[in-house]
Amino acid sequence: MAGEGVRNKQLIFRDYVSGFPKESDMYISTSATIKLKLPEGSTGSLVLKNLYLACDPYLRIRMQRIENPILFTSFTPGSALNGYGVGKVVESGHPDFKQGDLVWGTTGFEEYSLITETQELFKIHHTDVPLSYYTGILGMPGMTAYAGFYEVCSPKKGEYVFVSAALGAVGQLVGQFAKLMGCYVVGSAGSKEKVSHNHPQYACIIFKCFQLQGRTRLGCSPEKYFPEGIDIYFDNVGGKMLDAVLLNMRFHGRVSVCGMISQYNRDPPEGITNMINVIFKRIRVEGFATFDYYHLYPNFLEFVLPLVREGKITYVEDIAQGLESAPAALVGVYSGRNVGKQVVAVAPES
């Protein structure tokens, strides 16, 4: 019965992490239960059945103890992780959502979630594309690529664009957006396997130069691919890559600082030694938070959906099956094991 408690499988965060996360830092629990019918007076709340969960790099930041949170708060040891996902409304006490609606936004890493902050949910109106896309190209990563490239970088046709982590959830879209604008695009990737794939959205792909777990340091020579310099650098990795790129930026270049995955597992993080180029070359370096641009989400959908439907933009996903696969899938993001957007499929769509 809907009012009775049902078993709710969850991915539990064990304790704060130092260095590279391990699968053992999380565990699957089947001891929790959840009522699929809202209690009386639960106005504004929802019960979601989670269908897809997103393994996003920023989750590593939340695995450490954050003393003075600015953008992110720490996960609570002993509780389920949470992040972006796609779900179906099982029960609604909110006037804007009804039973059966599909949504994407912040949810728990579990089979069912009680959502009390619905302002972090977006209703899904377009279902002629894969629902999993709302963890990626049509969700937060897509908005990140759109805002970070078009709004922060103000690109122009013919400019020289460099994208790090170019085969990830965000980077693969930035490369395609730049090519659609008529830019020359180079991307970097973290393994020979990724580089060996055919990636038509890039002029070429090079190795990134920061240290990956268990791997030797890879060389980074942006000047080889940009003899005339770089106009736009979309930075997903930070560290030595950012340092090398600053040497090769053109006058009045723009750096969109999206992420720093090379630094998330370092304590202390690496320093940047070439910042003087920001002054000499009048470079604009700007960090951004995606949710500051969520008011542009309707514009983004109007722009990107036709491109997806017409096959002018493609999106690579790496889908792991079952919540039990989530620890390995999430940890794999930090060693570069995934190709494309890492997603966990929790339950069938129907």
TrEMBL record:
It comes from Parasponia andersonii (Sponia andersonii). InterPro entries: ADH_N_2, GroES-like_sf, MDR_fam, NAD(P)-bd_dom_sf. It comes from the Eukaryota. Transmembrane segments: none annotated. PANTHER family: PROSTAGLANDIN REDUCTASE, PROSTAGLANDIN REDUCTASE 1. This is Alcohol dehydrogenase superfamily, zinc-type. Keywords: Oxidoreductase. Residues 9-123 form the Oxidoreductase N-terminal domain. One of its GO terms (molecular function) is 2-alkenal reductase [NAD(P)H] activity. CDD domains: double_bond_reductase_like. Pfam families: ADH_N_2 (PF16884), ADH_zinc_N_2 (PF13602). Signal peptide: none annotated.
